[in-house]
Design brief:
226 residues; alpha+beta; Beta-Lactamase; Arc Repressor Mutant, subunit A; five-stranded antiparallel sheet; 7 helices; elongated
């Protein structure tokens, strides 16, 4: 499954969750993911939900972040009368949002997430709506776990490719030094490491400069195809 397919699936889940409410015309949904302590909206049914999420991220507080931290649903029936998160409530009024509901999603590892519902009127979520959203949070958790896993695999592949490319240019530079100085690979690596320490530069950057200087072309660079 492609990463964009997972993103589309999550967006569809956000749309579907909003449509299951008793009054879907006034509600929209988003999904927040926190990885490496950084929150981001990974799916939404409307742009307004993203703007409200980002207001919380900038302020470092809001019902969504509170729900995730406390691992408990946060229902705000009337945002005009809510005073816990002033930046968020002010933005909600501008967006025409009257009430919100945030439910934590159960993930694995260090990642955390939440399902966010916004209504354009106060008291926009009935008790039945709240129970329905909490039920759908289970399905959202499964979909998001898949998305996180795919993202982790993609990152691992990128890191591996970068490591292999660095190894390639270092090996090329060491080989060139061995040929020029008629020395062993161990000695060539020592020369590179000394140059790296002296210049206070990364070993890969020093190696790349060696390869470029020997080729008499500063644009020369290596490729590693993963």
């Amino acid at each position: 499954m492609k990463t964009e397919d997972v993103r589309e699936m999550l967006d569809e889940l956000a749309d579907f969750t909003a449509l299951t409410l008793s009054d879907p015309a006034i509600a929209f949904c988003s999904i927040t993911l926190i990885r490496h302590k950084k929150p981001v909206t990974v799916a939404s049914s409307e742009r307004g939900a993203v703007r409200l999420d980002e207001t919380q991220y900038s302020a470092g507080e809001g019902p969504c972040l509170t729900a995730i931290r406390e691992q408990a649903p946060i229902h705000v029936p009337d945002l005009v009368r809510e005073h816990r998160w002033p930046a968020y409530t002010a933005a909600a009024v501008v967006e025409g949002v009257g009430s919100s509901l945030s439910v934590p999603l159960i993930l694995e590892g260090e990642a955390e997430a939440g399902l966010n519902m916004y209504s354009t009127r106060s008291h926009g979520f009935s008790g039945e709506d709240i129970g329905r959203v909490e039920s759908y949070a289970y399905h959202a958790s499964k979909a998001l776990r898949l998305a996180v896993r795919i993202s982790q695999l993609a990152e691992a592949k990128t890191h591996l490719a970068a490591a292999m490319e660095s190894r390639t240019v270092i090996d090329l530079a060491a080989g060139a030094i061995m040929a020029q100085n008629r020395c062993s690979q161990e000695s060539a690596m020592k020369i590179l490491k000394i140059a790296s320490q002296t210049r206070n530069a990364k070993l890969r950057d020093v190696a790349a400069s060696v390869v470029a200087s020997l080729s008499q072309d500063p644009k020369v660079h290596t490729h590693f195809d993963a």
